[in-house]
Specification:
alpha+beta, 7 strands, about 40% helix, 7-stranded antiparallel beta sheet, 7 helices, globular, L-fuculose-1-phosphate Aldolase
Amino acid sequence: MLRSLREEVCEANKALLRNGLVILTWGNVSGIDRDAGLVVVKPSGVPYERLTPDGMVVVSLDGLQAEGNLRPSSDLPTHLELYRAFPRVGGVTHTHSPSAVSFAQARRALPCYGTTHADHFHGEVPCTRLLSPQEVASDYERNTGKLIVETFRDRDTFAMPAVLVAGHGPFTWGVTAADSLHNSVALEACARMALDTLALEASAAPLPAYILERHYNRKHGPAATYGQRGQSR
């Protein structure tokens, strides 16, 4: 059951390590089969090099385990909340990649300082508020998802497929598990460049809007000229 999704999610989790986005087992990727209403996610605490498609955990959108003997990622309730709130999302990635985490720990949004960022993200990557003591004590992981949804109440989740959870780290999403991973790679690269920019010039200004719009739209707009027809990001 869900063989192709198991394979995709397994490969995306292994790619976290190849792309330098994780240390130890600090990250996870999931994917959803909307027709079946089932989510495939990394098992908790299993090293990436030991992951197999058969070892992935399958759960319902209610969090009930449908397949697999291993416990799912502890971040699963956050993933599920995003799938429930964002019906176009097909994959979610969470990491503790150092540069993106640095902005999250500083509780700062990630500004768009240049065209590399603008090519991928439509402006500043938002940072959430901190969870309250009550939110942490009652249902921490699910409330993390609710916090992300709150932050995106007036935002386009595909123009900005990333968020920094204050004091925690980044979550990204996409139309597939592989796409969500792609967005995590881009986010970490942009965060690293932003930190270097701030080290050189602490008062660096964000890229002017007219340049940001030009670069974002040439790749993602209705008259995009980047890439080939039918090609995703």
